[in-house]
Amino acid sequence: MHEDGFIGRIEWAVAGRALPGQRVSGDRGVVLDTGGGTVLFAVLDGLGHGAAAADAADRAAQVLAENRAEPLDVLMVLCHRAMADTRGAAVSLALFDPSDTVRWLGVGNVESQVLAMGPVGLTVRATVLLTAGIVGYRLPQNLQSQTIHVRPGDLLLMSTDGIVSDSTDGIDLSKSTAEITADILAKHAKDTDDALVLAARHRGPAQHNGPAT
Length: 213
Description:
Phosphatase 2c, domain 1; 6-stranded antiparallel beta sheet; globular
């Protein structure tokens, strides 16, 4: 599965695949235009793999689509309620807004980072502080989002645990987000799990609008 596009100034792409031998993946990447130049990104990792994991992730994706204007902590609670009778999922949410900031919130083991090109090469500018739990089963009581500033060219990278943790090594920021996600999936996907990676970044002046969910 490969999807990519533009929403305003933000270029994005998602690449994923099911565990080898499975017909469906429990990993989902969600891209939602919330209006006014703000974009909601989410990566959902249904617990385990197969149809039951996919069902959990699909429920969360539907909730996000129907409630995209809500704050991140509210969205997490709504996902939790929607997945109450499922396996549950790890969920990370990231909101790009027109003031060049990212607000993000994560429960479970979906990693999120912001990468930038520094004087000595690629650097990690920020990493989301993940909260232990399983959305749909055990949600932490205190859900606090983080806010960071981003600059044109900075890359938001979100990945499920089906992608090895050192997948940022060798990323070429001169490539498109579609190329970056395809490269990561091809080189760093584990053979023991579903895998998905989402990348997004500001491209400076406003671009044409592309496909959005």
